[in-house]
From TrEMBL:
<dbReference type="GO" id="GO:0000049">
    <property type="term" value="F:tRNA binding"/>
</dbReference>
<dbReference type="InterPro" id="IPR002313">
    <property type="entry name" value="Lys-tRNA-ligase_II"/>
</dbReference>
<keyword id="KW-0067">ATP-binding</keyword>
<comment type="subunit">
    <text>Homodimer.</text>
</comment>
<dbReference type="GO" id="GO:0005524">
    <property type="term" value="F:ATP binding"/>
</dbReference>
<dbReference type="Pfam" id="PF00152">
    <property type="entry name" value="tRNA-synt_2"/>
</dbReference>
<comment type="similarity">
    <text>Belongs to the class-II aminoacyl-tRNA synthetase family.</text>
</comment>
<dbReference type="InterPro" id="IPR004364">
    <property type="entry name" value="Aa-tRNA-synt_II"/>
</dbReference>
<feature type="binding site">
    <location>
        <position position="419"/>
    </location>
    <ligand>
        <name>Mg(2+) 1</name>
    </ligand>
</feature>
<keyword id="KW-0547">Nucleotide-binding</keyword>
<keyword id="KW-0030">Aminoacyl-tRNA synthetase</keyword>
<feature type="binding site">
    <location>
        <position position="419"/>
    </location>
    <ligand>
        <name>Mg(2+) 2</name>
    </ligand>
</feature>
<dbReference type="InterPro" id="IPR006195">
    <property type="entry name" value="aa-tRNA-synth_II"/>
</dbReference>
<protein>
    <recommendedName>
        <fullName>Lysine--tRNA ligase</fullName>
        <ecNumber>6.1.1.6</ecNumber>
    </recommendedName>
</protein>
<dbReference type="GO" id="GO:0000287">
    <property type="term" value="F:magnesium ion binding"/>
</dbReference>
<keyword id="KW-0479">Metal-binding</keyword>
<dbReference type="InterPro" id="IPR045864">
    <property type="entry name" value="aa-tRNA-synth_II/BPL/LPL"/>
</dbReference>
């Protein structure tokens, strides 16, 4: 265990001194907060000041300016920072000045959480403040906060080290309060999506996270073991097959915000635990889903920004519907000059070699085409673009195209050079679905550890009959990155996965 620093030792000594004075540094009782810093700042005027004569706030001490028998203190609650004015004679009874001279001046530190009571006023320098007549300890901070230099209210030396920010997000949120805005917007994004689908009469549901078969996507799962049943289980890689079971059961539209897990690499757009919104609608197809999705994302942009134009890095991305549509083969041809439409596996391997794309023997035709698109074309689609009509080998859960042999009715939505959503006209032919699963088994036997397992219960469900259905998965983490202009998925997750800390 890391030895305590000098500051940590001093703060523990102060803790003991508080206890000797009969002050509980961690009281249990409710504190009667009746306002917030942001509300006072927004509503206080000369006309409304009478409403702020009995203010009770709680927050964390962020700075102290000692003036002898008085002091200015800045506290931060969940909404904003506000200045306090504390005077010795106002908080002390009679001749006993211990509350100010000892408790406040000697035993209180930046980072402590306090409760205060007093009235709002404007100082001679024109700053809104709370003149306090009582303060109480609510939690003594035993670790000092990182020092952040500020000038005229603006931080110019905020802690930016990613290792610190992501591992100690609780401190990041304290010293960089603007980080909260990203997560507030993330919640607004999800609420906008909920409202959109609820208005269509669709039902939000929950499906299993622990699954006997990891289905619904091509990915490597996390495995675990259930002791009571003595069986292996998997953390879900997708919730698709369970949601389609509900369509079989008679629901016309269902959606779920799902935590999915994939035991794969990590980078600025991938975390092993991530959030996906999946929605399935009976009697719809992928054309309807494209129209619905562009309408949804337009609403999300407007809800967050009041405009469809969103700043992402040095680009402006416009979510105004309709979005461009480009076939997968046309996209590859546009950016490589090569037409892969009628190529067999050997020809695709030769094309990969020609384009200097690394491939493995386990890759089948679908994976090879996916690699070519990913390496040569994907990054060009900055503005929202539906890449449509994929080869059947890439899409084992998708209905064959109604007019284009060898293709399926699928789209991926590309935004800022990355996939944001994946959608199909869902395969509801149980005979065709069984054959597609068996093709996946052959890929697994070749060493493809992302190939799908056969889900016999799902096949049984299809045999009862699933209506024509369209489904979509939207990556909530990536959508939040785009809508909040964040460069890394770690910036939109409260607690991203990291290597264990050496303590």
């Amino acid at each position: 265990m890391t030895p305590l620093s000098e500051q940590e030792i001093i703060r523990r000594e102060k803790l003991q001194e508080l206890e000797k004075l009969g002050i509980n540094p961690y009281p249990a009782e409710e504190y009667p907060v009746n306002n917030t810093a942001a509300n006072i700042k927004a509503l206080y005027t000369e006309e409304t000041k009478d409403q702020f004569q009995d203010v009770c706030l709680a927050g964390r001490i962020m700075s102290v300016r000692d003036m002898g028998k008085a002091a200015f203190v800045v506290i931060q609650d969940s909404t904003a920072r506000i200045q306090l004015y504390i005077r010795r004679d106002d908080i002390c009874d009679g001749d006993d000045k211990t509350r100010f001279d000892v408790v406040f001046k000697k035993l209180t530190d930046i980072g402590d959480i306090i409760g205060i009571k007093g009235f709002a006023f404007i100082t001679k320098t024109g700053e809104l403040s709370i003149h306090i007549n009582r303060f109480d300890f609510l939690a003594k901070s035993l670790r000092p906060l990182p020092v952040v230099k500020e000038k005229e209210g603006e931080a110019f030396d905020a802690v930016t080290d990613p290792e610190f920010k992501y591992r100690q997000r609780y401190v990041d949120l304290i010293i960089n309060p603007q980080v909260k805005d990203v997560f507030i917007k993330r919640t607004r994004i999800m609420q906008t999506i909920r409202d959109f689908y609820n208005s269509m009469g669709y039902l939000e549901v929950e499906t299993p996270i622990l699954q006997p078969i990891p289905g619904g996507a091509a990915a490597r799962p996390f495995t675990t073991h259930h002791n009571a049943l003595d069986i292996p289980l998997y953390l879900r890689i997708a919730n698709e097959l369970y949601l389609k079971r509900l369509i079989v059961g008679g629901f016309e539209g269902v959606y779920e915000f799902a935590k999915d897990f994939r035991n794969e690499g990590m980078d600025r757009t991938h975390n092993p635990e991530f959030t996906v919104m999946e929605m399935y609608a009976a009697y719809r197809d992928y054309d309807w889903m494209m129209r619905t999705t562009e309408t949804l994302l337009e609403k999300v942009a407007l809800a967050l920004h009041g405009t469809t134009q969103v700043q992402v890095g040095d680009k402006i991305i416009d979510f105004k519907a309709p979005f461009r549509r480009v076939s997968l083969y046309d996209a590859i041809k546009e950016h490589t000059g090569i037409d892969v439409t009628n190529m067999d596996e050997a020809q695709l391997r030769a094309t990969c070699q020609q384009l200097n794309i690394g491939v493995s023997p386990s890759m089948g035709k679908g994976k090879l085409i996916d690699e070519i698109f990913g390496e040569t074309s994907e990054h060009h689609y900055v503005q929202p673009t539906f890449i449509i009509d994929y080869p059947v080998e890439m899409s084992p859960l998708t209905k064959k195209h109604r007019s284009k042999p060898g293709l399926v009715e699928r789209f991926e939505l590309m935004v800022n050079g990355k996939e944001l959503a994946n959608a199909y006209s869902e395969l509801n032919d149980p005979i065709d679905q069984r054959q597609r699963f068996e093709d996946q088994v052959q890929l697994m036997e070749r060493g493809d550890d992302e190939a799908m397992y056969i889900d016999y219960d799902f096949l049984r469900a299809l045999e009862y009959g699933m209506p024509p259905t369209s489904g979509i998965g939207i990556g909530i983490d990536r959508l939040t990155m785009i809508m909040t202009n964040q460069p890394s998925i770690q910036d939109v997750l409260f607690f991203p996965q990291m290597k264990p800390e050496k303590i």
